[in-house]
Design a protein that fits this description.
Helix content: 40-55%
Low-confidence stretches: none
Mean pLDDT: 87
Oligomer: single chain
Number of helices: 8
Strand content: 15-25%
Order of helices and strands: HHEEEEEHHEHEEEHHH
Shape: elongated
CATH architecture of the largest domain: 3-Layer(aba) Sandwich
CATH superfamily of the largest domain: von Willebrand factor, type A domain
Number of domains: 2
Structural class: alpha+beta
Largest sheet: 4 strands, mixed
CATH class of the largest domain: Alpha Beta
CATH topology of the largest domain: Rossmann fold
Number of strands: 9
Radius of gyration: 28 Å
């Protein structure tokens, strides 16, 4: 799936876009049983002619009543559409909570610099961190434009001096660089801040 935010995804696949919200469906399968003030007549007018003629549905949200006039086939059509929407939402949720996305979320920027601060991680945790970083490089960074890696340490360690264009070669190179890093003691908070400032100094990132 493309790396898009949930808000953008909903704009394309949401219920409202596909006219599947409750209000939109009700307006297509019936009409509201109204008791409104009609200004041109100067009095309250109720659609009582529909009483007993149609099945009715009462919305819990606002108490409005709808007279249902649609044939069974149209209602079943909306049932199928809603079941399809539910399945699509399930797929989206499974995708959002799987692999690198459950740790890093969905990367939406076209150019990123990942700052590596392994803190007090023991060797086993250090390897788990590198597994996760390798995953995000291979799954998500491959879909953006440029990237770089900076390790927060006593002396800052960069994969590249500036962010590099994404390609199969550069991603493989970054993964190889990542797994050649030595396990070190934790850097100070000052060094972590320096690494972040260095990341933001990349013109491609700051733009």
């Amino acid at each position: 799936q493309p790396l898009v935010s949930s808000s953008k995804w909903l704009q394309l696949h949401g219920l409202k876009r596909n006219k599947l919200t409750l209000s939109q469906i009700l307006s297509q399968i019936g009409f509201q049983h109204r008791k409104d003030y009609v200004s041109t007549l100067g009095k309250l007018v109720a659609s009582r002619y529909a009483d007993g003629l149609f099945p009715q549905y009462k919305r819990a949200q606002d108490g409005s009543v709808y007279n249902l006039t649609a044939k069974k086939e149209l209602i079943l059509h909306f049932v199928d559409c809603l079941m399809g929407a539910i399945e699509l939402y399930k797929q989206r949720m499974e995708w959002l909570t799987s692999e690198s996305r459950q740790i890093f979320g969905v990367i939406q920027e076209r150019c990123i610099v990942i700052v590596l601060d392994f803190g007090t991680a023991i060797p086993a945790e250090f390897d788990l961190c590198r597994d996760a970083l390798s995953m995000v490089l291979e799954e998500q960074v491959t879909q953006i434009a440029r990237f770089n890696l900076i390790r927060s340490a006593q002396d800052l360690i960069k994969w590249q001096e500036k962010s590099a264009p994404v390609s199969e070669h550069t991603v493989k190179s970054a993964v190889t660089w990542l797994w050649k890093l030595d396990h070190m003691t934790a850097a100070s908070h000052t060094k972590s801040a320096e690494a972040l400032l260095e990341a933001m100094s990349d013109e491609m990132v700051s733009s």
